[in-house]
Amino acid sequence: MHEMSLAESVLQLVEETAIREKAQRVKLVVLEIGRLSSVEPEAMRFCFEAVTRDSIAQGASLEIVVTPGLGWCMPCGAEVEMAESYGACPRCGSYQIQPTSGLEMRVREIEIE
Prior knowledge:
Blueprint: H1 3-20, E1 26-34, H2 41-51, E2 61-67, E3 69-73, E4 79-82, E5 97-101, E6 105-112
Helix pairs in contact: 1-2
C-alpha cells in the first residue's frame, strides 16, 4: 500500500508548514489526486488518519479533490478525457494516448490555527 508512504510525506509537508507558520494545530488538508495517479482516495484517507495520530494534524479533516485524467491522442491529435491509463481513444479507437493531466498528487491547501 503505497498510500501509507504518500500520507507520511503529506504529513511531513503539513508539519513543516505548521512549524514555519507557528500554528497550534492543523484543521484541514486539501489534496488534489489525479484520476490516473494510482492513488486510491479511500486508502489515502485511512492512511492519513493513521499517520496523523499524535501529531499537530491529529483530527484534521482531509478533503480530496479528484482531478480528471486527460491525454493527447497521437494518431488523431485530439485531447481526450481518460478514465484509465491504457484506455482507447474515444474518437479514433487508438491506444496511443499520451497522458497530459491526472497523474499528479499535490497538497492544495492547509488550514491552520
